[in-house]
UniProtKB/TrEMBL annotation:
InterPro entries: DinB-like, DinB/YfiT-like
Boundaries of every DinB-like domain copy: 17-164
Organism domain of life: Bacteria
Protein name: DinB-like domain-containing protein
Matching Gene3D superfamilies: dinb family like domain
Amino acid sequence: MSTAEIVQRMEEITNHYIQELDQFSMEQLTRKPSENEWSLGQMYVHLINTALNMQLRNIELCRHQSANEPAEAGGKTEAGEAIFRSGSFPPVRIQVQTAIPDQPLTKQQIVEELNTVVRRMKEIEPLLEEISPLQTVQHARLGGLNAKEWFELVEMHYRHHLHQKERLKAYLESN
């Protein structure tokens, strides 16, 4: 998939996430199915924070590595190879040790920050061709990813969480 197609898919997925927000009150968006699970709002915050503070930030780290500087990370792990070969995460719940996202303050905050992610991707997309694929930054589970792979990972991550969104939506509709 080209980087332009990734941006287009991100716009589509983001619009879907934004449209889904209309169905829920802030109380519903912050309601957790259990103490160990995230609310729908926390899932949105997670997507935004991961994109802005990890995935897109790591593209900048790849971009600013000197051509003479050795890459920070080696190649991808077996899991990383499998995910990029298939173009998506496996359709299963993935439990990772990550900071518990804050609850969102408002729906408007969610919408603005989702749109910020898309805007940043549109700004970064034309720069990707200039970044050497040999410049990589380590992902804890997937191994060394280059700038284009980090870019693709944003869309894959948003798409993966559609499963969680549907599960949480079903919970909210039944309670």
